Amino acid sequence: MSVYDVEKIREDFPILQRRVGEQPLVYLDSANTSQKPRQVVEAVERHYLEHNANVARAMHLLGAEATEAFEGARAKVGSFIGAARAEEIVFTKNASEALNLAANTLSSRLGPGDEVVISVMEHHSNIVPWQMACQRTGATLRWFDITDDGRLDLEKAEREHLLNERTKVVSLTWVSNVLGTRNPIADIAAKAHAVGAVMVVDASQAVPHQATDVAALGADLVAFTGHKMVGPTGIGVLWGRYDLLAELPPFLGGGEMIEIVEMEKSTYAAPPARFEAGTPPIAQAVGLGAAVDYLQGIGMDEIAAHDDELTGYALDKLTSIDDLVVLGPTEAVERGSAISFNLKGVHPHDVMQVLDSRGVAIRGGHHCARPLHKRLGHQSSTRASSYLYTTKTEIDALADALVYTRNYFAPRF
């Protein structure tokens, strides 16, 4: 697109024309899940109505068409993130499964005395699998702390020798789903590699919003999910360096992940089939391929610029509201579009309900990041998150609804 026309983009998302009672829908929960354009929905519909069959099994025409569409989606996703080859793309059901795949397979390399490093700002999906891996193997879990402004505390990590010769895995979010903080992954990956560690990245809040080059990122494994990038639910991705994937053991056993099965033992297929047991999410992969086409049609640099402009506008609006505190960076610098905040004296669930009554859809809770909220001294928070279809008018509606909510709950004397 030569000019970013958000109103034209919104025409592709019929759900955005809905009303909530007498109010127009203002959808500001895209960090939770994005809305889907008609092009993606129609691609899934066409697959089911015209090409539906299982992949890599049926030798008839429909089976060949389904396999071609499925593997075509893999190639599209690989190209989208700069993978060296399509076989570096493993399809999962979501980013959580992708991170569990990473933790379960890399745990084959862990033992007592080894260390896994994460951060306090991680989503539970990048905490719990590593806790479980350490419990199984006797390895130790350590983590980056954060500064008061919501950035990784790199100086403290350096003082405490967080990354050292015992570090075997470093697994970090690229962009925080709560704070919006964009972490310096390439720098940390270089330090991880210097001590012989594998670098895993949760890119769920990054890949949908900015151009991604996994080679430049410096990671070894990268997880993200389709439903946050205008794609279907039920499809996630784990990208990995092919040589690393080829060394890792299977995650699940079943059909198509094998080479030869005997009653006494089995041998396993090469990646990515080794990690895709059973019938995969075929139609969902087709939809994800259509989502990639849609995003590339707009342009990831254009989407990123729109996100940055909207995030700066929203931060200016929210920080001007009395009794509202923003969690994390308050300037749109090295920052994603998710903005979490609290209204003094008002529970986030109450904020969420009042805003919903005014047509504004946001999220209230700990956003699957309870340790982060505890570190910040907040029980929970309210989060607004924009995307490629969000307008400044919707940000204005959010700010007006928050002022209304603050005044509604204000003590009356």
UniProtKB/TrEMBL annotation:
Gene3D superfamilies named among the record's database cross-references:
Aspartate Aminotransferase, domain 1, Type I PLP-dependent aspartate aminotransferase-like (Major domain)
Q: Does the keyword Signal apply?
A: no
Q: Name one GO molecular function term.
A: cysteine desulfurase activity
Q: Which residues form the signal peptide?
A: none
**Which InterPro entries does the UniProt entry name for this protein?**
Aminotrans_V_dom, Cys_dSase_SufS, PyrdxlP-dep_Trfase, PyrdxlP-dep_Trfase_major, PyrdxlP-dep_Trfase_small
Which reactions are catalysed by this chain?
(sulfur carrier)-H + L-cysteine = (sulfur carrier)-SH + L-alanine
Question: Which cofactors are required for activity?
Answer: pyridoxal 5'-phosphate
- Which CDD domains does the UniProt record give? SufS_like
What biological process terms from GO does the record include? cysteine metabolic process
User: What keyword terms does UniProt attach to this protein?
Assistant: Pyridoxal phosphate, Transferase
Enzyme class, top EC level, equals transferase
Instruction: Tell me where in this chain the Aminotransferase class V domain is found.
Output: 26-398
What is this enzyme's EC?
Answer: 2.8.1.7
Protein family according to the UniProt entry = Belongs to the class-V pyridoxal-phosphate-dependent aminotransferase family. Csd subfamily.
What is the name of the protein in this document?
cysteine desulfurase
Organism ancestry: Bacteria, Bacillati, Actinomycetota, Actinomycetes, Propionibacteriales
